[in-house]
């Protein structure tokens, strides 16, 4: 009986908009855990120092924070979209998503920590690629032929200059990756650490 009533409730069209917010929270939490856990696992065992317990604690904390942040962001975003739509007479306006994202981003991702930095930098990279494609979408230029190669070369030129001259402003995991690729590859004293081990 309970499951029948619950199923009727969640399938009632009158409850759909509010339940979309609830399901958004659930999906944010699940997606955050799915994305962060394997990333934290790999990066922690590759680059973090400390005991096994410390590493496992960090992995679980990072997963929890990523999961929680996405769940709360989705909830705030969807709630603000709902409120703005109701205020506008049940019509979504073009700027609603920007306002909801702006407010949600400030509330949830405004704290400057490693997890938030990684998420925001990931999004920044994706929107920059998206912006590089806008001219092609509006038939201004042939983006794959002209825009993306220029964008890619600027990104790589800037990141390499920053790594060589202003390394401390880069995210720690990026510093660690670049240290391994570009500086650790300059050091060896035997075949063992030339071919098999890095150090």
How would you describe this protein?
The longest helix has 36 residues, at 52-87. It contains 8 helices and no strands. The chain has 2 domains: 1-110, no CATH class; 112-199, no CATH class. The model has no long low-confidence stretch (mean pLDDT 90). Helix 2 packs antiparallel against helix 3 and helix 3 (52-87) runs antiparallel to helix 4. The chain is mainly α and 199 residues long. This is 1300_t:CDS:1. InterPro entries: Pmp4 (IPR019531). It comes from Ambispora leptoticha.
Q: How helical, in percent, are the residues?
A: over 70%
DSSP strand count: 0
- Gyration radius over CA: 22 Å
How many distinct domains?
A: 2
N to C succession of SSEs: HHHHHHHH
Tell me the fraction of residues in β-strands, as a range: under 5%
| Broad shape | extended
Low-confidence stretches: none
Q: Summarize the biggest pleated sheet.
A: none
Question: Treating each run of at least 4 consecutive H or I residues as one helix, how many helices?
Answer: 8
Give the overall pLDDT as a whole number. 90
**How far apart lie the N and C ends?**
65 Å
Structural class: mainly alpha
Fold topology:
Blueprint: H1 2-11, H2 16-47, H3 52-87, H4 96-109, H5 114-137, H6 147-165, H7 172-183, H8 191-196
